[in-house]
Amino acid sequence: MITFNIEQWRAWAPGLTSADDWRRWGTSPCVVQCPGAAPDVSFLPAMQRRRLGHLARMAFDVGWPLAEGREPMPLVFVSRHGETPRTFDILSDLAAEQPLSPTQFSLSVHNAVIGLWSILRGDTCEMTALAAAGDGLEHGLLEAAALLAEGAPQVLLVVTEEQPPAAYASWINDVPFAYALGLLITPGKGWELSLGPAHANVAKSPWPHALSLLQHMLGSSTSFQHAWHGRTWNWQRSP
Fold first, then answer.
1. How far lies 234's CA from each of 9, 16, 67, 135, 197, in Å?
2. CB-CB contact of 114 with 120 (8 Å)
3. The predicted structure's pLDDT at residue 200
4. Other C-beta atoms within 10 Å of 12: how many?
């Protein structure tokens, strides 16, 4: 069991940028479509923005404001699928026997986002990139709790997924739309997370768990469960 506080949060999805947007979505969740919507990274110089793919832009959109004005802090970055559009482009070039772009490759690896974060913020704190399954959020929180236990006063946790190319539709069915969630985690007892055995009666959420957590955070429920492959995560927050 671990305990922690969620000091602040930010989330982004196409057309959902403010807390009020997410409250409305939480009341009536649906697949959002907002063509042309893009994460806001205007706080970065243009030359720096050019290196960021959509996944990184989402991570920076939710994470940067949470970290701004604070002491440097550890970062835990979680994504199950990572930079699928970049990797698909690289695979397409390989199939067409075209030369590969070293820049595209270097930015497609799973820890590219935390590398860019460290460079652009000049932050040398410990940073971790996790490629987890459907309970990646919980594994990210375990990592954050371990960092707090080692003395970090706060940890930034960012969970994000990109809308994969259509060619992956038969294999990736857990990303209804691109999204990112940033959580500023601090020591405390506002939240409690424990792990138990699988329970057949735990209903599976139709939404990725990071978005389900946001629903519960913005609602009135004080406890809920998330089941994934023989594991049941029990969430409890102080009333």
1. 20, 27, 28, 12, 10
2. no
3. 61
4. 26
Amino acid (1-letter code) at residue 33: Q
Domain count, the chain: 1
Average pLDDT of span 84-107? 86
Average pLDDT over residues 81-89: 88
Domain that holds residue 9: 2-237
Model pTM score: 0.93
- Residue 193 · residue 97 · CB < 8 Å: no
Tokens 């704190």 belong to: 125
Residue pair 61/40 in contact by the 8 Å Cβ criterion: yes
- Residue 119 sits in a domain whose CATH number is 3.40.47.10
* Whole-number Cα distances in Å, 136 to 16, 55, 168, 211: 22, 16, 20, 12
Question: What pLDDT is recorded for position 214?
Answer: 92
Tokens describing residue 133: 């399954």
Report which secondary-structure segment, H or E, holds 184. Answer: strand 179-197
CA 49 to chain CA centroid, nearest Å: 19
